[in-house]
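Journal club prep — side note

Before the paper discussion, L.F. wants everyone to see what a predicted structure for a comparable chain looks like in C-alpha cell form. Sequence:
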Amino acid sequence: MSSSSQSLGGATRCGRVIGPSLDKIIKNAAWRKHTFLVSACKSVLDKLESLSDSPDPSSPLFGLSTSDSDAVLQPLLLSLDTAYSKVVEPALDCSFKLFSLSLLRGEVCSSPPDSLLYKLIHAICKVCGLGEESIELAVLRVLLAAVRSPRILIRGDCLLHLVRTCYNVYLGGFNGTNQICAKSVLAQIMLIVFTRSEANSMDVSLKTVNVNDLLAITDKNVNEGNSVHICQGFINDVITAGEAAPPPDFRLILEPPEEGGDGVNTEDEGTNKIREDGFLMFKNLCKLSMKFSSQENTDDQILVRGKTLSLELLKVIIDNGGPIWRSDERFLNAIKQYLCLSLLKNSALSVMSIFQLQCAIFTSLLRKYRSGMKSEVGIFFPMLVLRVLENVLQPSFLQKMTVLSLLENICHDPYLIIDIFVNFDCDVESPNIFERIVNGLLKTALGPPPGSSTTLTPIQDITFRHESVKCLVSIIKAMGTWMDQQFSVGESLSPKRVENEVPTDNHSNPNEEEGTTTDHEFHPDLSSDSSDAATLEQRRTYKIELQKGVTLFNRKPSKGIEFLISSKKVGSSPDEVVSFLRNTTGLNATMIGDYLGEREEFPMKVMHAYVDSFDFKEMNFGEAIRFFLRGFRLPGEAQKIDRIMEKFAERFCKCNPNSFSSADTAYVLAYSVIMLNTDAHNIMVKEKVCIHGCHSLFSPWQMTKADFIRNNRGIDDGKDLPEEYLGALYDQVVKNEIKMSSDSSAPESRQSNGLNKLLGLDGILNLVYWTQTEEKAVGANGLLIKHIQEKFRSKSGKSESAYHVVTDVAILRFMVEVSWGPMLAAFSVTLDQSDDRLAAVECLRGFRYAIHVTAVMGMQTQRDAFVTSMAKFTNLHCAGDMKQKNVDAVKAIISIAIEDGNHLQDAWEHILTCLSRIEHLQLLGEGAPSDASYFTSSETEEKKGLGFPNLKKKGALQNPVMMAVVRGGSYDSSAIGPNVSALVKQDQINNFIANLNLLDQIGSFQLNNVYAHSQRLKTEAIVAFVKALCKVSMSELQSPTDPRVFSLTKLVEIAHYNMNRIRLVWSRIWSILSDFFVSVGLSENLSVAIFVMDSLRQLSMKFLEREELANYNFQNEFLRPFVIVMQKSSSAEIRELIVRCISQMVLSRVSNVKSGWKSVFKVFTTAAADERKNIVVLAFETMEKIVREYFPYITETEATTFTDCVRCLVTFTNSKFTSDVSLNAIAFLRFCALKLADGGLVWNEKGRSSSPGIPVTDDYAPNTQNFMQVDENISYWVPLLTGLSKLTSDSRLAIRKSSLEVLFNILKDHGHLFSQTFWIGILSSVIYPIFNSAWGDNDLLSKDEHSSLPSTFSPHFNGASWDAETSAMAAQSLVDLFVSFFTVLRSQLSSVVSLLAGLIKGPAQGPTVAGIGALLRLADELGGRFSEDEWKEIFLAVKEAASLTLSSFMKILRTIDDISDEETLSDQDFSNEDDVDEENLQTMSYVVSRTKSHITVQLQVVQVVTDLYRIHQQSLLSSHVTVILEILSSISSHAHQLNFDLILQKKVRRSCSILELSEPPMLHFENDTHQNYLDVLQDLLTYNPKVSLELNIESQLITVCVKILKMYLKCTLFEGAELEETRQPQNWILPLGAASKEEAAARSPLVVAVLKALRGLKRDSFKRYAPIFFPLLVELVRSEHSSSQVPQVLSTVFHTCMGPMMSE
C-alpha cells in the first residue's frame, strides 16, 4: 500500500506532492456529489504519470509547462470549491506543501483575476467560512506558508484579502487557540512583508514572532491553557517548513513596470513592488485602526477588537522597523500622515488596551524616529503622557501605570532623555517635556495634597509613589550613563549612537538587532546639526527669560510687556508685540484681552495693530467674530470691550466695504452677537439685557430669534437689517457657540494648550481630556480630525525645527538644574515616609546616581544637597530611631565614597562624619571604653566602671555620654544636648541596643575600605578628602565632653597610604595636615594636644624613612608643625614632648633628616629660650650630640642649614639657667668655626648649579648690606660671628669673657680666609657693635657723633656696661686683631681709632683705661708703620671726639640756666632744700653728675694726647703737632671758661650742698689741662726746635704763661679787684680769704712751672717777651702766696734772667 502511494504522481517533484493528496481527495469524495471532482483527480493522476521535470520559465508550477500546471492544479481548486471538509483538508494540505517547498511561483494580485495562483489563494481564503476549527487552522497555515514562500509575491488586494481572512478568524474564531493563531499569523505576515520591504528582496532571513509578546496587552482572556505553546509551535512549524532550499532553477520573475520593458529580476535591479505592498499594508492597517463604532451601535466590541488588533500589528511593524522607515521619505511620511492620525483618533477612546498600545507604539516611535518627528513628538508627549502623569487627584490607575511604565522604559535609553531635553526644553517653540516629566513624577511621588479628595485607594497611591520614584531614578541613572559614555570615549565619540540600547518588553522579538539601529544614522542632515552646550545654553536662557516674561504677563500684562521689551525678547513696535500675543505659548487669554482693552497709548496702538492683523475679507459677520475671538478672551470691563469691538467693527467694514452702511452698524451688531452668545450658552445668565440697555423682566427662558431681531431694529443708519440675515446669524450662534480662548482649569496643561495653538491643533486636548467613559462617535469630531489630518500632511515633508544632537556633557548642567530639586524632594519624602524596603532601596539608588552626576559635573550646591540629605537619612545622629532603611543609607554612603570619591570635594565632610558616627556607635555597642579614657588618667578610671562593657545586655546604664547618644540630637549637633541631666528610660536603652545590632551589617572592613581607597583618589580628590577629614577630626577632638581620636588615627593612616604620591601632590596634602596638627597641638585640652603631637611623631617617623634628594625642602615642611607648636604653645608639657619627639626622630633617622634640619634647629632654638630648665637642658643634650657626632649630616643637603645650627647655639649661649650650657654652646660655636674653616661646607656646594644666597635670616637683616659682595661660602661666617658679637653684652662675666675670647680667637685664627671686603663687614657688623656695651646707657656721644661713625655703629645691645677687665680685654683684642691684619684693615684705621676714642671718653673708669691703653698700644705697635695722614687721622679723631663732647656738654649746662638765681645765689643757708623745686633738684643733680664725667673725659683725652706725643714725638710732623696743640688749647680754654663762670660755680656749689654731693673738680681740671699744655709747649721748644720755629711755639708759650699768671694774680689780689696795668698804686694790702688761699695754693705748682718755663727761655727770647710778662712778675712780688715755692722761683727769675738783662 505504501509503495503504491509513493508512486502516485509520477516522476516529477510536484507530482510526488500532488499525487498523494489527489488520491486522498478521491477516497474522501462523495461519489455521487463529487463525480466531476473525482474524474478530474484521476485524469490529473494519469497525466502526472506521463510527465517528467521540464523547466518552463513562465510556468507557475515547478517542472511543468504552463498548460500542464493549470491542468494539475485544477483539482485542488475544485476541491476547495466543494466546501466539503473531508475534501478541503487534503487540498489545503497539498497547497501548504507546494507553498512550503517553493514549488509554486508567481506574482499574485487581483489583476488579472483569472490567474491560477490568485484563484488558488482566493479559494483558500473562501473555505475559511466553512465554520470548522481544523479548517481555520489549516487555512491559516496555508496562507502563512504562501506569504512565507520566497517564490510567491502576494500583492495588492490579494494581500489585503489574505490579511482580512486572518482578521476574520481572529474576530470570529471557534476558540481562543484559533484566535491566537490568527493573531500570530498576522503578526508573522507583517514581519515577512516589512522585512522584505526593508531589503527590497524576496530572499531574506526571517524572524519568528513571539506569541507570548502578542498577549502582553490584549487577549489574555482567550488564552486556553497551553494555547500559547500550541500557537508558537504552529508558527515555528510553518516558518521552519518554508526554510527548505527552493529548486535552484525555479526563480520568481516579476512583471515589468507599466511604463514598459521586459521583466526584471528583483535580485539584480529590483522593483518598488515589494515596498509598495508594505506601504499599502501599513496604510490600510492605519485606516482599519481608525474605524469608529457607529452612532447606532456605540458598543461594538468586534470593532474594538479589530482596532486593537490593527494597533497591535502596527506595533509589530514599528518595533521591527528598520532603516527604510527613516531613509525613505514615503514611509516616514506615512507614519506622520496615517499612524499619527490613528493615534490622534484613538486618543478619544477610553479603552485601556488601546491606550496601552498607543503608548507602546509611541515609545517605539520615540526611540527610533524622533529625529524626523520632532513636532509630532511635541504633540503626543503632552497628549498621551504628560496629561495622565500630571493628573494627581483623579487618575485612571491602569492609564497612569501605563504611562509610568512608558517613562521607565524610555529612561533606559540615555540618549533619548538627553535628546528630549535638548530638542524640547531648549527649544523656544517647543514644550518643556523633560521639566514637566520630572515635575509630574514629583507630584505623583508626593501623592495627593493633604485635604484633597481623590479616587485613589491607599494601595494605588503607594504604587504610584513607588513607580514614580523608580522613573526618577531611571532618569538620573540615564543621565549618569550618558555622561560616563561621553567622558569615556569623548575624543572618539561619533555623533551617531545607539538609540535603542535596551530592548523593551513590548518588542516582538527582544533579541532582534535591527531595532538597535541608530536614529540619526539615516539622517545625516540631522546628525551634522550637532549643537554645542554654549549654543544650547543661550537657547535655554532665552526660553527661561521668555517664560519669565510670559508668567509676568499673566499676572500683570503691562509689566510683562515692559519686561520683554527691555530684555529684548520682544520688539518695541506694536506689530512685534502683536506677533508675540498671537503666537507665544502659555499666554493667559484673559490677560491678553485685558491688555488689549487698556486705554494707555501703547496698549491702544497694540490693540489696533492686533485687530488690523486679521483678514475678514469675504467672511460673514458671525464667522468673523468667531475667528476674531479665538485668540483672547473679552475683558469684563464694559469700556474695554467697547474699545475692542469698536476697532473690530472698523476692521470688518474695511475688509468688507459693502457689508454695512457704516461701521456703527457692525459695532452694535457685534455687541448684540456677544450678548446672544452669552445668553444662549451661559447657564448662569438669568437676566436678559436689551441691546439698548433696557432690562427686561426676569425670565427663565432664553432670547428667542424674534427677540434678537427686535433688539437689532434700526441699527443700519435707521434701517433694519434683513430678517433673513439676522435669523441666519441667530441660528449660527445658538447652534454653534462662539468659544473664546480660555485657559484650562488644569494648571499643568497651560503650556500644552499654547503648544497646540501654535501647531493649529486647538481642540485636540479637549478631545482627549480623558474624562469620557464611552467612545466618541465619529461625527462628533470629524471636522477636527480632518483639520488635524491636513496639518499632519502639511508637515509630512520635514520637521518644523531642526533636530539637535549633543555630545557635550555640559548640557547635563542644565538638565540637573531643572531636575535636581524635584528629585531631591521625591527621594527624601519617600525615604522619610515609607518603611518599604524596596522603595527605600530605590530612593537610595536615586541618591547615588544623583550624587554621581552632580559630583562629576562639579555642581557643588546640588551635590552637597544630595549628600547632606542622604547623610541625614542615615539617622546616625539619632541612633535610637534607626531602621533598616537607615542602615541601607549608610551602605549607600560608603558606596558613594568608593565610587565617586574623585568628585565629592567638600561633600566629603558629611560622608566622613557619618563614618565617624558609625564607628562611635559600634564601639559603644561592643562595650569598648570611650576615647576620653586616652586623654585622662585617674579621673577616668572610675568612669570605666560606669561604661558599657555589656551594652547589648539588658540594663539601664546612665553614663552621660551614652545618655546623649541614646537621646540623639539634630544632624549638626556634635555635643551632648541641654537635657544631659535627664535619665534615659529602660525601653529607650533596649531600643537603642536593638538598633545597634543593625549596624553589625556594616563591617569594619567596609568602613576602613573608604580610607584605604584614598590612595586611589586623584589629586584634587585626595586634597579635598584630607581637608574634610581634618574638619571632622577637629570636631571630634574639640568635643568638651567626649573627645574622640577616630578620625585623627585615620588621618595618620591615610597620610601613610598616600605618602608615595608625587611630591607636588603630597606637599598639598601635607599643607592641610600641617595646619591641622598645629591647630590641635595648640588646643587648650592638654591631653588632646599630647595625643595629636604623638600622632604627628608617628607619622614623621614613617616619613623620615624616605630618602630626600638635594635642593628639596619637603622634610623641612614636614617638621614645620613641630616648630609652630613649639613656638606658640603655652604648655610646658607639650614643648617638652616636642623636644623629645624631635630628639628621637633625629637621632634615629639622622641620615634622612636632610632639609628637615632647619625645622630641627628652629625647635631647639625655641627650646633654648624656654622658661623651663629641663627643656633647655634636654634640647641641648641632643644638640650637643648632633654637633659632636652628626655634624656632616647637617649640611649634607643644604649648606645654609649651618646658619640655623649656629643661631641655635647662639640662643643656647643666652640661657640664664646654667652657665655650663652657655659656655659649652660657645665652645661648639668655635667647633663650628673650625669646621667652616676646614671647608666642611664647601664640598657640598660644588655640585650646586645656583647659589643659595646669603645664609642669613631676618635676625641679621640689618647687617647683610655689609656682606653683599662676599663669596657665598665665606658668608656662612656671618651668623656665627654676629652671634658671638651679641653675646659679648651678656650680663654674666664668664660668658662675656668667653665669647670675646672665642670671637677674637676665631678672627685671628681664620682671618686669613677673609677678603678685605668681608673684613670691612666684620668690623662694621661684628666688632664695632660690641663696644657699645662699654658706652652703656651713659653714652657720651651725641647724635651728631653717632652719625659721623660708620652706619654699623648703631647700637643693638642694651646690656650692662663692661667692667675694667672686660673692657681692657676687648680693647686689647681689637688692637691685636688690627695689628695682626693691619695690611688688610689699614683702611679702617680711622674707625678703630674713633672707637678707641669713644672708650676713652666714656664715663666709666674701666673702659677709659682700656681705651687709653689700647690706643697707646696701637700707636706703639704700628707707630713706625703709620703714614703722615694716618697719624693725622688718629689725632683728628681724638680732636673730633673732644670737640663733640665740649659742644654736647655746653648744651647740658644750658639746662641750669632755667633755674632762677634766687634759688642758687641767695644768701640763705645752702642746706635749705624746701625752697628748691623738685624738678630743679633733679636737673641740678644731673648737671653736677655730667660735669664730673665731662671733666674726667677731658682729662683722659689730654692724657692720651700727651702720652702719644711724648712716645712718638720723633715721628710727628708739624701738622700732627698742630692738631695736638689745638686739642690741648681747646680743652684748656674750655676748663678756664668753666672755672671763671662765677654764676655757674655758685649754682653748682649750692646744688652740691643741697644734694650733699662733692663739687666737680673744676679748678683741678683747669690746672691739669694748662699744665699738660705748658709741658708739651716746653718740650717742643726744648727738643724739637725745627717744629718750634715753624709753629712759633715761643709765642704760644708766652701766651699760655701770661694767661696762667693772670689767673693766679686774680685769685691772690683782693677779691673783686681787676687786674689793670695802669692803676693807682695801693698803699694797703688786704689779707686773702680762705677760698682765695685755697685756690692760690692749688694754682701755685702751675705758676711755678710757668716761672720755670720763663727762666728756661733763651736770653734773646726772654728779652723780646719781657715787656709782656714783666708787669705780671712785679704783681707776683706784691701778691700774697700760699706756697713758699712761688717766691723762690720768682726770685730766681729775677736774679738769673732780669738781672743780667737790666745790667746790659
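L.F.'s comment for the group: Residues 35 and 1449 are 168 Å apart (CA to CA). Keep this in mind when we get to the figures.
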